[in-house]
Design goal:
Elements (H helix, E strand, L loop, with lengths): L1 H9 L9 H24 L4 H27 L4 E2 L1 H14 L4 H13 L15 H5 L24 H8 L1 H20 L2 H24 L20 H6 L6 H6 L15 H11 L3 E2 L6 H20 L5 H34 L7 H32 L8
Antiparallel strand pairs: 1-2
Helix pairs in contact: 2-9, 3-4, 3-5, 3-9, 4-8, 8-9, 13-14, 14-15
The structure holds zinc ion (2 copies).
Length: 392
């Protein structure tokens, strides 16, 4: 009877069978975090040292997923020293998001079949709940394990080791670490609740936001045909993974937030690891390609908008003209920039100084020209874009 009630809670029509182990492992910590954690906080309290540990450990968990499971292993966005890979493997077990081979396999399918409800393991097309949490609770065909797409990762002995000893590792990290800190700090119960349960639940929920919220709310700057969005607010909770439209467009880039002001601590950590010689071969998309992609999306969107204007054909013509001019200007400026950087790196002989000055002058002129065209383009977009698109 109880079982039937619970089943009806999750299914209104025939559904794949529930994964009871996942249900227990994922929901029990949520129940403890929602009840015992605040109760202990009100009755005993947590001190500053415990909150500091909480911040350190939640960052360790989340960054092991974002910098390790995600950008390193799923997308090969850079290479990492075995010590760093070991730390990420331990952090991944701490985050309790399955072993990395399974995680990366699911994630590669998510990118390959994004928004395909039959093949994307956490397709946002099936709604917030499914993409956030629901996909793990039932035996959906798209979520069944198939490591055929991670053969490269099977060569990494750290990942094979992590998969083999995943259970003892997750127990050691999730119970052993909080209890150990608790023993040293003379508050085992408080540390277990705060560093064990609350840290685990929040780090998991924040990561899940990337699959749900970052596919539902935000801007589609680089590819308007997919659900992935750029959302700075989600980036705050996900250590920089909120710039998800960019990520789905250039998944192999070690950055998600590409501007200096974008909040992307994962990008900063990878860069820091490079300085410490623990990371290398960071892959990065060129500014030119990023800009061309962005402008092409603006152009296509503006063409749709201008259909709503009177004299649509005149606007379309103007858009095409200014778009072509901007693209030409961007191409010329990029070439001049490369020539200038090359000349700078070879500027050691006095005879070449005159040529170098000419190259620099041309580069600066073209930069000015490109900036003017970009400003004119923005003005045109602002005008055309003021008419909202008709809903389908
Ligand atoms: Zn995604
Ligand atoms: Zn990804």
């Amino acid at each position: 009877m109880m079982l039937q009630k619970l089943r009806s809670l999750f299914s209104s029509h025939p559904q794949p069978p529930l994964r009871w182990l996942n249900l227990a492992v994922l929901c029990l910590p949520v129940a403890v975090a929602a009840t015992l954690v605040p109760w202990f906080g009100f009755t005993h309290g947590y001190d500053a040292v415990e909150w500091l540990w909480f911040l350190v450990l939640i960052s360790f968990c989340e960054m092991s997923i974002t910098a390790g499971y995600h950008r390193l292993w799923s997308h090969s966005a850079y290479k990492a020293h075995p010590l760093l890979r070991l730390a990420f493997a331990l952090g991944g077990a701490f985050a309790l998001q399955n072993n990395c081979l399974t995680w990366a396999s699911d994630h590669r399918r998510h990118h390959l079949h994004a928004d395909d409800n039959e093949k994307d393991p956490y397709s946002a097309g099936l709604g917030f709940w499914y993409a956030h949490f629901g996909w793990m609770l039932r035996d959906y065909p798209a979520t069944r394990e198939d490591l055929g797409n991670v053969k490269d990762l099977l060569k990494d002995p750290i990942l094979v080791w992590q998969r083999r000893y995943y259970l003892p590792l997750l127990l050691a990290m999730n119970i052993g670490v909080p209890v150990l800190i608790g023993v040293v700090h003379h508050d085992i119960a408080g540390c277990l609740l705060l560093l064990g349960f609350l840290r685990l639940v929040l780090s998991q929920q924040f990561t899940y936001l990337i699959n749900s919220a970052a596919h539902l709310w935000g801007k589609r700057t680089y590819d308007s045909n997919q659900t992935a969005r750029d959302n700075w607010f989600i980036a705050l909770f996900t250590y920089g993974e909120g710039y998800h439209n960019y990520h789905h467009t250039f998944a192999w880039d070690y950055r998600n937030g590409i501007r200096w002001y974008h909040y992307d601590p994962t990008k900063w950590l990878i860069k820091l690891m490079q300085w410490c010689r623990l990371a290398s071969d960071l892959r990065q998309c060129s500014s030119y390609r990023i800009e061309m992609t962005r402008v092409a999306v603006q152009f296509r969107t503006a063409l749709q908008h201008c259909e709503q204007l009177s004299e649509a054909s005149r606007w379309r013509e103007r858009l095409e003209g200014e778009y072509n001019q901007l693209v030409n200007s961007l191409e010329q400026w990029t070439e001049a920039q490369q020539a200038w950087y090359q000349a700078k790196s070879q500027a050691f002989s006095n005879e070449l100084q005159h040529d170098i000055a000419l190259i620099r002058h041309r580069y600066r002129q073209l930069k000015q020209d490109m900036q003017q065209k970009r400003a004119a383009w923005q003005q045109l977009l602002a005008h055309v874009g003021t008419v909202p698109l008709q809903s389908a």
